[in-house]
Amino acid sequence: MKPSKLFLLSLLVFAAGSLFAQNGRQAIVSPELTADAVTFRLPAHYATQVSLQASWIRGAQPMTKGENGVWSITVPRPVPELYTYTFLVDGVSVLDPANIIVQRDVSRFSNAFIVDGDYADLYKEATHRGNVEHVWYYSATNDMNRRMTVYTPYGYDPKNKKTKYPVLYLLHGGGGDEDAWSVLGRAVQILDNLIEQGKAVPMLVVMPNGNPTQYGSPELQIPVKTDIKQYPSGFDNYDSMVADIVPFIESHYNVIKKREARAVAGLSMGGGQSFYIGLRNVDVFANIGIFSSGLLGGTGAGQAAFDPEAQMPGLVSNPAKYNKLDLFYISCGEQDNRITGTKEFVDTLNRLGYANVFYETYPGAHEWQVWRRSLSAFVQKVFK
Length: 384
Known about the structure:
Blueprint: H1 5-22, E1 32-33, E2 37-43, E3 50-54, E4 61-62, E5 64-65, E6 70-76, E7 81-89, E8 92-94, E9 102-105, E10 108-115, E11 131-139, E12 144-152, E13 167-171, H2 180-183, H3 187-196, E14 204-208, H4 240-252, E15 262-267, H5 269-280, E16 287-291, H6 294-297, H7 308-311, E17 327-333, H8 339-351, E18 357-362, H9 368-381
Parallel strand pairs: 13-14, 13-15, 15-16, 16-17, 17-18
Antiparallel strand pairs: 1-2, 2-6, 3-4, 3-7, 5-6, 7-8, 7-10, 9-10, 11-12, 12-14
Helix pairs in contact: 3-9
């Protein structure tokens, strides 16, 4: 097989960056943050056109070729957050060889950097850090050995059976996998920081793969399993959570085996899954979080408005059946087209007298800056 154009370009860019160091020239700094600007640089002497593709800027931004074939661009410093970017070199997406922070979003790769301040301070490494592991478990639901990511807080000792922890089961969105929350969502850093600051209860966070056909993330190159049970929808498709995952966690980790110490939450598709998992199992979960879910929002043209009674019989006609939650947290981005339907659902819950319903919105559309902030708020409220 011939090497891909992306591979060859990335190799050439890396080689160019290495030559600068080998020849004793000053190492290229990219990105370089100042008080009011960010500068990006890429050594690409061979290139005829280079531009910056940034998550916070609409459209590709042309870069200028300077000395020694180094292309650069300076843009205004964005507000505190975590941002991603790539370079477009003669039509091909290329990573920044000067930035070692690379994120994978399924099959897409990008560089990342943090602008300090406000929420973004939670995305940096804490002093006291928990552990993260990939765990394989057997799922009898579809006869599969599947992989999930498990976070244990600082101080967790598997040999200490006396100290037990609550558990947050955290689901990703459509197209994501078991790495999404720990990599793109900075869930590990958020929990480490908030626990260290005393703003969140020490807890385990279990991040499974919410795609029923996948054994694990696509990077494992394990073919999907096609002969699985049929599910009502892409939201109502995760009965494995209660049947397989909760029992596995409770038999392998020091956790509290009570509904008050269990929470299920997720973003987008995972939020819809949390709706069904949590409300169908109020005897198992006392806490539910739904972040930017299309189930509530109704995003398709001509799509019927969300009918809570039809999706969960009794939710409207018999509130006493479900009004048993310690926390029912719902959030959405202020520029997300799911926000109208989401707010209508929250209004319905409040009108029916549901307790402990919290609704918050954040600047942004259907994107990670909204979900990272949603998680930060949720873990400060849950298990209190």
